[in-house]
Amino acid sequence: MDELKKRPSFGQNASLGSLYSFQNEHLYPDISVFERKLPDEFQAENKITDSDGKKVATTFENTTSKKLSLLNIETDVKLSVLCGMLTSNETNFMEHKELGNRGICFYAYTLEISFQSFDANDKNLQNLCKKMIESEKADHVIVGITYGNQIIVKLTFDNIAKEMDDKELLQEKIGKDFDNLLQLNDIGGIENYDQWFTYLPSLKFEIFSDLLNTESKTVEDFCNKFQQIKTDSKKVENVKQLYFHLMPISTFQEKTGCKFSETPIFNSITEKTMSKNIEPAFDKFDNAICQLYALKNNLENHRNYVTLKEMDSLNERITKFETEDTEFKRKLRDEIIEYRSSHDPEEVEIIVRCRNFLKICETTEQEIMKQFEIVKQRINYLNQIAKLGLTIVRDLHEFEYIKTEKKEIYLLSFAFSQFNQSSELEENYSYFCSLYNDRKRQTFIGTSPTSPSPHHLYPSFLVVEYDIFPEIFQAENLSTKPQISKIVDGKFAETNLLESKVILESQCIVKCDNIVSTGNNSQHYKRQIVKIRCPNTINGGKCSNKQRYWYCSKCCAPLEYGFDGRFYCVCGFQNCENFEFKCNEKDHRNGFVKFNKEDLKRELSNTSEREEINIVMLGESGVGKSTLINSIAMYLTFDTLDEAKSPGSNLIALVPTKFSFQDSSNGQDFSIPVSTGSSKNECQESGKSSTRTCRAYHIPYGDDKIIRIIDTPGILDTDGMEQDKKNLENTLNFLDKYDEIHAICILCSANCAKLSKSFEYCFKELFTQFHISAAKNFVFIFTKAAQSGYQAGDTIDYIEKLLKEIKAKRPGQKFDINAKGLAFNFDNMGYRYLCALQENRTLKIDQEPKYEESYRRARDETIRLLQHIKTTKPHNAADSVSIFRARNLTFRLTKPLIKIGQTQKESIIKRQRRQREIQKAANDLEKLRKILATKAPTIHWSIVKQTIDVCANCTTIKEYRGNERIQFLECIPHACDIDPFSLQLYHRLKKSVDGKFKCKNCGPLYIYHQIHEYLLRREEYDTKDIETSIAKKLTTKEEIEQQIKQEAQELLEIEEEIAIVINSTAKFYAYLKAESVISHNDAADTYIDVLIKCEENGKCDSDKLQSLNDLKIMLQKEKERLDEVSPITQEKLYRVTPEDVLDLVTKLESLKHYGPDVKRAMEEKIEKRDAITEEPYISYLNQYSHNKNKIKHCIEEFEKQ
What we know:
The chain folds into 7 domains: 5-259, no CATH class; 295-371; 374-505, Glutaredoxin (3-Layer(aba) Sandwich), CATH 3.40.30.10; 507-609, no CATH class; 630-664 and 671-873, Rossmann fold (3-Layer(aba) Sandwich), CATH 3.40.50; 881-935 and 1024-1170, no CATH class; 939-1020, no CATH class. It is of the alpha+beta class. Helices cover 42% and strands 20% of the residues. It is elongated, with a radius of gyration of 53 Å. This is AIG1-type G domain-containing protein.
């Protein structure tokens, strides 16, 4: 038996005489050297006396080489185990990678029960052997089998080696205690299990054997299971083959005379190669994989501080590494098999492969550990934060909930991976902890056990880290730089407390107790930033005499004076004398100082109200006036898009707006409503004009200016031209509030190649509303300019054409408007982008440069616009308001005066005819009495409203186009605003004798409806009652003569009145021609022409027709007379002022005969609507910023020429 080799069975079962291959560690249980089963008489079985087992080895190292030593096997077998040629339950412990932060001890225990064999030298045995054995690749015959069990125990515990002075002493103690434990366990001598291994925390036992794999976390449970395995191993049904004893084929052939089909070669790897090259490669992998699993365990135990991407990345790296290990073992196994069977074996390839894999292990471990070093640092950093009691936010819903529940929140935000080495993070963290400790101390001191403060009033201190929670940074537009934000009532009040603290320490500050909160933090536009001297200067201190800005020490906002005896800041307000001051000069050494009341009053006397800059926005509905106003407020508040989207930089939406934006996820348009609250002035209904009435919005700029932007309803309103006229009237009435208008901005869409007639109407209609002196204040703003390269595009050419047409109608008058020189091109994509972010929309990152460019260009245009306004003399608003009122009266009276003039002329004609009849009957008193008995004809006109019963079942529509519409103007003022003008015609219902209605077309199937009809009624007072009254007076010759004189006097009076009417009409024409940009001077002529045409086409009344022709001639002569006068003479003698227009109206209304007709024409005067006027700009802290240079920068920028 000296030549026999020993192989562990590793769970395999064989029979005596079975073949075995050392080359590939393969058992051939079905191939035997015997013809039949070996009879019992040839078998020898020996019971092993030491059947209770024995310890084989102990190791405290988790390396491959040390673990292999537990199996007590030869070098070749070790190599086969490493390559995976031999596997079983008891080798599973080789694959278990214990984490690097755990202490470990392996304990190998062998239990041998019996040994079975046969004697190959027995001559009688030869008769049982096969003559020829198909040995395939087998190279050994099993001649003996040892039965029993191999048990491997792995003991792991929290690593305390670093706390022990001597690691070897610890291992020695564990080994002795293990031996004693198992010995006592065999004899049942353990009384108290709890006293064992008390010095090892988090103890765990794992048992590996062919019979059972199990684990225990207590000493008692382990002992019971270990003993049970030993007991079960001795049972017949559980007895396992432990070792095979093998004889080389060549030796067996010599002893028995058997012949084998093949005699394979077997070469063994040298011990040196095994120990110097193969085992180190496997040890290195084991060490590396243990470190990686330790890293993985660390990450999994701190899952809240690790991203899913990071976990997936680590798992992928570990899986890839393990795959490389598997591939290495496979290739190594193939090479070993080839080496063992080679006639000319060389170990070079095996050595090279192992060394290369060792390098791979080293590199992979280093790369992965380096990659996740920042993650480990982050975990340690956040653990440190969590131990202080601070809340680390991981969920957006949780954050939103806390914002809702907590009145005050302090938020530390940072990207650890970007700033872990920077002083910024350490400084912000240190200041954050100091704030936390201060507030905690204040809360503790200020809380009474009997009456605790409400929980929601306690400030929350939250931490959010970008690497693990980028969603909140995106939702709140937080910077990845370390910063401390303050959130009050769910809104960011401050975004960089540390920076504010540093800046504040360098600023002049104030404090005041008992500040009265303003609640909504609104700011009246007339407040002015306080710039006064330090009180120490006045009180004899050493502070310098210069004026300085002051900031609140609590909210860091600039101090403002309200011109009402109060100072204001974000905190609220309080009387001025209650504030204390501390400047930033080093000589100011006596803390906060108060002003003497009189001294403070003198200091504030030099504070003036902000200079007002009034800008009017005009244009078509939907051109973007409201959005532009919001955008300008943003441009004047934030220099860049990055600043505008930072967390504390709340979106400014002075005017509620609504628009569509392109979604990045699916390419579909989505509607984004943007509003700072409800507004009755804005209609958000799709297809409707947005702004309903005029409203002024105020934007503080610098420390001494307030920009007032006046938003107006759009021309071409969706409710029709009648609404347009009302909107324009409302606009001019609104401007009456202000002394000066600095700019009149006409908004147009850029790059419109062909503009509609409606746009031309809109454009000219705007110019009709203003005095000629306002021409210098017009500017043109082109919206949506990005599509034309931030230029006006084709629209500017069309506007130049319209301006030339207007100028051509004003020969000899100064009207120089260069549209190209007054063009300002805007595209508010940047603002829309900010609105989309406010709505938490997901947008394409690669589009952000486009929005940044749009924001930058629009801000530059805003500054350029303000520079232009500064160099332009303001327009006197009263001039245009006067034009509007005079125009209102002029257009309101033009047609009625023509109608009145017509009736006057008819009355004159009829009276002149009557005068001729009187002259013919001068000597015939009776004839005279008869003529004079009827009242002298005086013709008047009026509009009469009457109710008519009609059928709504058989209506028809009739359209009137062009000048046909003018016939309805007296009754339907807006008839000419619509072309074609449509009338719905009804059939009247007739009532039968029984009181029932009947329709001519529908009969009894009518649909009853009532309409109101407006009729033009010509009235001529000529009744029997008047005749009787006059007849009674005409009894004597003297009375008849008196009546004749009276009628002659009335005729003269009417002739004088018609002269006044004609002159007034001509003066209205002259006024509009001289003072307005566009006069529409042909309105009266056109109207007379239409009336003449209507008379000629109808039943021709010669008197009416003659009166209209005479009236046209008179008006034309009067206008020609005014036109012939030179401009200088006209200026001196015929210049009509707005006041003259009002006097003319008063004079017309006081006319004896036709004054009542003028009054009736004025009865439908448009009411001056009450418009919402001043809309305060919501005070955002950002408008001043905490950058001490910000205010100065704004002022200097505005002052540029």
